[in-house]
Amino acid sequence: MEGLSLAWAVLTTTPAVLAAAFGVAWGIVGGALPGISPSISMALILPFTYGMNPVVAIILLASVYVGAEYGGSIPAILISTPGTNAATVTVLDGYQMRLQGRGGEALGISLVTGWVGGMAGIVILIFMSGWLADVALLFSPAAYFGIGVLGLSVIASLSDSTLIKGFIPGILGMMVATIGADPLSGVNRFTFDRPELITGISPIVVMIGLFAMSELLVQVGLPPWPKGEANVRIELPGLKMLLGRLGIPQLIGIIVGTFEGIVPGAGGTVASFISYNEARRWSRHKEEFGKGSPEGVAAPECANNVVTATTLIPVLAFGIPGSNSAAILLGGLLLHGLAPGPQLFERTPEVVYGLFAGLVLANMFMLILGYFTIRQCVWLVNRPKPYVLAVIFALVLSGSYTLNQSLFDPALLLLFGLVGYLMRYFGFSMLAMVLGVVLGFMVETNFRRALVMSGGDYSTFWTDPIGASLIGLSFLFIVSSLAGTLYRQLKNRKTD
Amino acid sequence: MKKLLDKDQAAGVFLIALGVMYYRLASDLPRSLISDRVGAEGFPKLLASALILFSAVLIVQSIVRKLAQAAHEREEISNRNWRTFAHAGGMLGLGFGYLLIVSRVGYLLSIALLLAAALRYQKEPLSTRVLLTALLGGVFFWAFFVYALRTPMPAGLWSALPGGR
Questions:
Q1: Same-domain check for residues B165 and B137
Q2: Are A393 and B114 within 8 A, CB to CB?
């Protein structure tokens, strides 16, 4: 009941409703633009949340994520170009439906099943994050070191090619995190007498540079985006269809989305692919998949919207982002001085319950705005690419200046844009670097604190039951990822 | 022309050099009187060593893969890649150019110039549309940051304008 009253207070005393509406609208537009992923849409708006009430800022960011996951399906269905990675699988049946003159029906299914998934995800988030945060209350510095290591072990699952290409950017990220005053002794590290570096490099600048700026640099060299049909109209599925033929695919989407959202490193893209595959396996109309099956749109769209909520579970409970979008949301929390974990639930419950309420609102707005603004979205998507990119370029440079009102931040942003661009070229994982930046401080500080408390005795890391379990779990995670990679390589070699 | 290094080897060599440089900088860090046992330099040294080790593994992996592959399968830094780099580099150059002039000529004019330059760089022909986008875009950005977000933006030559500094 206390949670409900806190949520109500946030909704009635702050501009949270406006933030949710604007965030969803921004997210739908961002998601609908090919190449502008949910994380980039969130990164673009992140600097502008700086002066905002923290709850409103977090609601705004979460709403962008919700809107973008739906927005990504618009170009996937209309022009066979997924606006987001998670919408890639929606192309398979969504675009076929559009070719059959059923584009409006496909968009309606995407919108409604996405809403069902989003609401289901919020219920799971509310129950699980509070319970996990209670568990986190028992944590010592050694256990926090363990949780940091567990977060970093996510890196093992992030690189498509080799484990090394996940570990290297993770280390580079931790190296960035060491810049600034040492947390324990106060010694300035790698600041090169620049006063701007004494407080360290803001993870926000790193994230916007790596995700948004590098994408812009890539897009500049690519051909124009294809154009969408201007006179499209959404047709919502009836209750009979929703509970009948689309019932099982949605249930699959909810189960897969819950699991993939909680497991770090998986995210909406993996969830949508797995749920599509499972929906086909369990369907009575298997032959229709790939040829315009409504179930082929419902399962992935439901799953990736479940993930928008469930991916927040490890972020809120432990401060571990499992996806790019979750990393940006964590950046938003850090930007406002909010430390994720049990302290967030204890000291600032209004942020947590406000976020839950904001997510419910965001899903409602997604349904309303998604339905009524489809033509405006298609109009925006059809703007010439050079104009869209020029405006985004001006926006990121101006936005990063507002963080500290210093030209040092936009310069760093350009630098990290270049780093991100090179990382894409060389096949390194950018999320691994972000994880390094975000978790580096946590790992180093708790490692050293644990040693100070134990009088320099390293056995503290294996005598603390929670810390030892988490470190053990991290090793298991890395070994299983390694085994999975080796298995796939052997399988591919046999196929060749 | 046969390339000396492939992508992974080039990245590995650069990262090893970066690791060595970072290790040396970490070794030069002063020792504080209130420092703990690990010290301010302990974690950075560990990271530098790990970076050097993993970068060496990356190079070895690449060499082993190269030996197993036919010449035509090798992924090298081709001339096409250099052209793509140059394209991205030009855009970055525009960004740094903007940072160089913004405090002198002010935010309003420099953001309008940035918009126009970014459009021209993407081969948009100089037209009324481009000029209007730059002009109206510049005014919109300036009004948005100065009035809506109340952020003082560099005024430069236009210091008489409200909201500048």
A1: yes
A2: yes
